[in-house]
Specification:
This protein is mostly helical. The protein has a three-stranded mixed β-sheet, sandwiched between helices.
Length: 177
């Protein structure tokens, strides 16, 4: 759906701008760029090493849980009520520790996300700057990224309709212009 909207936007920009003059539109594949960029490959290797380490720790926790569960399952019929409750509590605590570890390392704001930001952001910024530089040097009006979802990577500010839309809505733009 987003891809269709982006393609319609490109077509509308092209058709609408043809009446005013030529619009130069280009695209890049940031996936292809990142695969060939040594900095990106190094950052990915570092991220992969963290993932392997953390996955190993998580696997150990899961193995410990499985061992304790198997032991509990074999002996639950001969355990006292108090010992059974204690074993079940230990299993729940271990399960909770696994969930916390998984969330801490791989969760939405986990260490993997932080490390990915820390390692990949400078590389992404460098690629974005290169895209902008090429767009300016080659006089492109729009540059899209065809990797995954189509993203607008660069737009000539003369085509920005935001101030006009804000004005139409009787909203004073930030900065008081």
């Amino acid at each position: 759906m987003k891809r269709r909207i982006a393609l319609c936007t490109i077509m509308l920009l092209s058709v609408g701008s043809m009446a005013l003059g030529q619009v130069k539109i280009g695209y890049v594949s940031t996936d292809a760029i990142m695969k060939q960029l040594p900095d990106a490959q190094d950052a990915q290797k570092q991220l992969d090493a963290f993932v392997v380490q953390w996955q190993g720790e998580l696997n150990k926790l899961q193995q410990d849980w499985q061992k304790k569960f198997d032991d509990y399952d074999k002996r639950k019929l001969i355990m006292t009520e108090q010992r059974r409750a204690e074993a079940e509590r230990e299993l729940r605590e271990l399960d909770q520790r696994m969930a916390e570890f998984r969330n801490k390392k791989f969760g939405q704001n986990g260490e993997l996300f932080t490390k990915q930001n820390e390692l990949m952001k400078p590389v992404q910024d460098r690629v974005f700057k290169a895209i902008q530089d090429v767009a300016l040097e080659e006089s492109y009006d729009y540059v899209f990224d065809k990797s995954g979802e189509i993203l607008l990577m660069y737009a000539n500010s003369k085509y920005d309709l935001t101030p006009k839309v804000l004005s139409k809505l009787n909203i004073v733009p930030a900065g008081g212009k």
